[in-house]
Amino acid sequence: MESSQLDPNDTFYAIVTGANSGVGLATCCRLIDEFLQTRPQSHTLVLIPTTRSSRKSDDTVKQLRAHLAKTCQKSEKRVPGIGSVLEKRVRFQAEMLDLCSLISVQACGRRLRNTIPKLDVLICNAGIGGWTGLNWWRATYKILTDWVHSTTWPEGFKIASVGLVTGPQVPPTGSAPPTAKGKRGSGGTPEPPLGEVFCANVFGHYLLGHYCAPLLKAARPQAGRIIWTSSLEAYASEFKLEDFQGLTSNMAYESGKRLTDVLALTYDTPAARPYSSRYFETDDANTSDNRPRMYLSHPGIVNTAIISLPFPWIMNWLYMVALYIGRWLGSQWHTVEPYTSAVSAVWLALAAQSTLEQVEGREGKGKWGSATDRMGNERVMRTEVEGWGFGGIVGDCAGKKGRKRGAVDLKEGERDKFEGLGSVCWREMEKLREEWEGRLAAA
């Protein structure tokens, strides 16, 4: 059966960005496995992995089909005849998407609105680090003297490029040369710089969520979910409102992840609602009250190729060993393997809405992390956010594990400050979105 012939009421549509490798590919595999295990046999999963090229799209679908076949073979051994039934319950619809190209994001949004009737979940996984290497002497010293903490929060020894920007977003049509203040845009007007790390990790996803808002609102019985992928390295100290895109920072990745935390945790607060409501606006009056939800996850500490290392085979193996040692020494955040690291995002994607509302209604809105014990038994755990605690509730930090050394318990008034920051961030993101949409429309 073609995707267009599926009954939307019995079909679950899921997008995973950056799905060609690492955590993204593992998230797709885990979605397949857990969907087949938890949803009725009459239900179908339409999995939409996004990559930046047709070659990567083909390769990703090939890997996912192989994983599906393997899953079905395992089930066939337990229940003869079930394998062919399960295989028919998963469909793939690969999409090309370059998050650093706003035109590509707009085009992807249009294709999705024309090819699927709704969207149940958008998992914003893709991203780049912007790192160029490591300070090896400092890294070696820090790890040997403070193993668990330094492999969890590797501050001070990752080296990143400063001021990385995307290519021109608006094709130039004039003859004016580029200026020091920006890249040449349509008609020769200066195009302001757009941070590459910021765009890949935050702004590109932000726009995609906006363009998919009609599909998210069309999901039933509840609206769809946007699941942001954050990090343990979302340091409050690295995000500056005056450097919103992290263009002058040597920790643009960490700055963007802090912004991600703030946006996802405050989107439904009274102060941010005027801006997030604009973000979710659609032309379809029938879905105006079906407001999408945002959730926040992180994969823990996982061995992926997000940072380039010399002698990659040897260094990646040594890095993986270092992470396993960190787990054995007591770290709950060292998931190490991509499949394990995907547990939090997939749980947020497939959990019943009543379950999520019950948990967050009782413990406050939180940041959900992938975690393990020493033996690798996985679980989903709340993660502390600076200025928010574990759920925006004073006193909710007492006795909690997995906290960064030096973390301070949430105090009275800090949540108000955090919500105020969220309102400003939402306002700035909406302003940036509207400005860039205006430039693209005028081109």
TrEMBL record:
Source species: Phyllosticta citribraziliensis
PANTHER family: 3-KETO-STEROID REDUCTASE ERG27, DEHYDROGENASE
Protein name (Swiss-Prot/TrEMBL): 3-keto-steroid reductase
Keyword Lipid metabolism carried by entry: yes
Family to which this protein belongs: Belongs to the short-chain dehydrogenases/reductases (SDR) family. ERG27 subfamily.
Coiled coil: none
Entries under InterPro entries matching the protein: Ergosterol_Biosynth_ERG27, NAD(P)-bd_dom_sf
Keywords, alphabetical: Lipid biosynthesis, Lipid metabolism, NADP, Oxidoreductase, Steroid biosynthesis
Region of interest (Disordered), residue spans: 168-189
